[in-house]
Amino acid sequence: MTATRIWRLALKTGLAVVVLAGVAELGLRVQQKLGPYYDLQIAPDNMDWHSDVVNHRPPPHTRDSLDGPLYGKYDGYTYALDYDDKGIRVPYSVTGNGHCAETPTILFMGDSFMEGYDVPRTVPDQVAHLLFDRYGICSRTLNSGHSSYSPAIYVPLARQLLVHLSPDYVVVDIDETDLSDDVERYERLITRNEKGENVGVRGTPIKYALYQWEVAADTDLFYLQRLFDRLYIRYSIMPRIGATVANDFHVSMDHDPAAREKYAAELSIFRRNLEELMGVLTRHVPAGRIVFIHHPQLPHLVPGPDGQPQWTNLVASTVEAVVKAHGALYYDAAPDLRRLAEGDPSALYWKGGDIHFSFDGQKAYAEAVAQFLGPEIERKHP
Predict the structure, then answer these.
(1) Residue 210 — very low, low, confident or very high, per pLDDT cuts 50/70/90?
(2) What was the pLDDT predicted at 327?
(3) At what angle do helices 123-135 and 359-380 cross, to 10 degrees?
(4) Quick check: is 120 in a domain?
(5) Is the dihedral of CA 264, 266, 271, 272 positive or negative?
(6) Chain-centre distance of CA 339, in angstroms?
(7) Phi (first) and psi of residue 247, to 5 degrees
(8) Domain residues for 29?
(9) What is the DSSP code (8-state) at residue 139?
(10) Residues 271, 373 share a domain
């Protein structure tokens, strides 16, 4: 083949590629106008969530909804999540009748189980009202719960909050997700000072990469390039993000008598974070006013073939040992929720894969926590 023929073939091939790309570009722009059938103008999320102290902070204002048949009659239920500049849910839960001799401040720390939905459908708010209705305890209850927080994040969060809020009581909610979050998500992102103290949990790099690709996918001049960006996000970035957010419960599912030794490395990381958290808390709040509460997952309430709960108490017992060694209070709600479930513990949780409490389960858990906290606060704030 002569050089001229090669040149002509290359020219024809190039022109064909340009024409096809032009047709594809035109087609993508037309479908965007008519549909869009595949949206290429999705505005990226902002970076309000990014933090190198608590990994991800709650945006000031968010609206969300429960979507899907698993929520039954609450399918489509919408709610607002509003936070102040310190990451506390607003409005605060303040109870009283104008004749309160004292109004202790109770700070709740936790993950999405504490974050809840709209304020009246959060555990801290319901606990506050139960304390007032049943025990006459006036309170100013603050909820710092946010999705996927765990002890690794509570440490720098507590350093920030306790200086400004000066709570009379701190209630820390713990569950099985906290072990996997500490070990799998946050351990490699912890920043330590020269004393070895946890002073921050850096933002997750892959989530920042997602933001950068979303910006590119929304601002690229050519829609064909936006399409490639979107496909890369969908098939490369999102699976990696999914791997970072999936909960891993294999430790709790393992009934091996030697499980504590088998998972010694994971438990050591978890225990270290709990110890450091206790150290931070007790510098600001007396140990007798620090309460760790453990909420069960559904498999804790459902018996297996041997009649024992399907999941072990390995996480709960680890928390209990650390907390009691520091003289703080510990409450495991599993026995009380088993009783309140009246033979149907599944009614306390959403169906179909959402591991969170249903509204009925949330109410039951708040009742159990209030029954534990009420007498304790009465003794200290008669």
Answers:
(1) low
(2) 97
(3) 50
(4) yes
(5) positive
(6) 27
(7) -80, 140
(8) 1-38
(9) E
(10) yes
Q: How far apart are CA 299 and CA 184, in angstroms?
A: 22
Q: Does residue 261 lie in a domain region?
A: yes
Same structural domain, 124 and 23: no
State residue 371 phi and psi, 5-degree precision: -65, -30
pLDDT tens, 69-115?
A: 999 999 999 999 999 999 999 999 999 887 788 899 999 999 999 99
CA distance 261 to 147: 30
3-class secondary structure, 77:
coil
Q: Are 175 and 113 in contact (CB under 8 A)?
A: yes
Query: How far does Cα 80 stand from its chain's mean position?
Result: 16
Helix, strand, coil percentages, rounded to 5, for the chain: 55, 15, 35
- Total tally of structural domains belonging to the chain: 2
Place of tokens 């720390």: 109
Distance CA 354, CA 374 (A): 30
Return the amino acid letter for 297: Q
Confidence (pLDDT) at 285: 97
Question: Does residue 126 fall inside a structural domain?
Answer: yes
Half-sphere exposure of 43 (CA within 13 A, CB side): 3
Phi, psi (5° rounding) for residue 7? -65, -45
Residue 154: closest CA among 181, 128, 127: 181
Question: Which of the two residues, 80 and 232, has the higher pLDDT score?
Answer: 80
Give the tens place of pLDDT for each residue, 311-346: 999 999 999 999 999 999 999 999 999 999 988 999
